Amino acid sequence: MSMSLRAERGNLLTVKDLNLEFKTSRGVLKALSGISFEVRRGEVFGIVGETGCGKTVTGLSVLRLLPRSAKITNGLISFDGKNLLDMPASEMEQVRGGKIAMIFQDPSSSLNPVFTVGSQIMRVIRLHTDLNKKQAEERASETLTAVGLPDVRRIMNSYPHQLSGGQQQRVMIAMALSCRPQLLVADEPTTALDVTIQAQILKLLRDLQKQFDISVILITHNLGVVAQTCDRLAVLYAGRVAEIGSAQDIFNNPQHPYTRGLMNAIPKPGSRGKKMAAIPGTVPSNPGMVKGCPFADRCEFVFERCTQEAPSLFDVSDGHQSACFLVTSAG
After folding, report:
1. pLDDT tens per residue across all 331 residues of the chain
2. pTM of the predicted model, to two decimals?
3. Are 298 and 279 in contact (CB under 8 A)?
4. What value, to the nearest 5°, has the Cα angle with vertex 206 and ends 202 and 207?
């Protein structure tokens, strides 16, 4: 990597005050309420939370891959200095897959079963670059090699069903990296894999992130994955940022009760046979309609202000913030 590239740091992606709602048969569902975060150049940024917290829809918003029923009502998504929300559809199509790529949860449903792996990767390359067919084939082969797949020629000529789950996920990563994107959005990339393969894929993602000097958004419910992979993270709850900061700060000094609950639910050595900790209750079905803090009815530290007013993000330390009134009372 050149010295100039190393020196050119800062924020690659800025999401500011993102609000999103869905039109449903039961009315409007407010899914995201004021989501804000930055992804720096060359870092792995985690988005964490349980099902229904808004993780995946946040990632899809960045790529403008939302369903018709979804509408962004306010906010800014700035990528490399350009607002993606104002970008014409034709220009966004070039950004999506070219400069920003996504890895989905289930590779078996993301890969086309009637085309070979090689033809699918080459199609993506030719769509987003000026490479000819021979050059695209060479790029596909190089990228499949980079993700650790053996016998690349066989893989290129294989159909998705002829590969294992781990191989399919590596193919998806290779496809995402084939156009040399600046940002990779990985949505639960190891959920469908067994534990051994999960560890291999996570190590691979981290190694490739360093090798290609790309930024990664890792969306997951698994804090163990975050601990071994991410530089910084945002903990989402009910479509809001509950806590944000470096992985070290949040793991060593969690400030939001929801974050602490997630930490306590991680199995620990010597806990076999003991009852696992759990957060009581469930995520609100329509969090945008909740008055006060959306975590109030599940929180053991709740007091009157929590039920009347939604907390903003308060500074814990430099770069570490928590949306909890306990932070201000402790200060």
Report:
1. 333 333 345 899 999 999 999 999 889 999 999 999 999 999 999 999 988 899 999 999 999 999 999 999 999 999 999 999 999 999 999 999 899 999 988 888 889 999 999 999 999 999 999 999 999 999 999 999 999 999 999 999 999 999 998 999 999 999 999 999 999 999 988 877 788 888 888 889 999 999 999 999 999 988 888 888 999 999 999 999 999 999 999 999 999 999 999 988 777 666 676 776 788 888 988 888 889 999 999 999 999 999 999 999 999 999 999 999 998 865 5
2. 0.91
3. yes
4. 115
Find residue 35's DSSP bridge partners. 18
CB 231 within 8 A of CB 246: yes
H or E element at residue 208: helix 195-212
Inter-residue contact 51 to 187 (CB < 8 Å): no
Q: Are 49 and 243 in contact (CB under 8 A)?
A: no
CA distances from 111 to 46, 68, 194, 232, 276 (A): 25, 23, 20, 30, 37
From 117, 112, 84, select the one nearest 100 (Cα to Cα): 84
Helix (H) or strand (E) holding 232: strand 232-237
Answer for the pair 131, 139: CB distance below 8 angstroms, yes or no: yes
Q: From residue 35, how far is each of 59, 119, 151, 261, 328 by CA, in Å?
A: 11, 38, 44, 21, 21
Phi-psi region of 259 (alpha: psi -120 to 50; beta: other; left: phi over 0): alpha
Residue type for 214, please? I
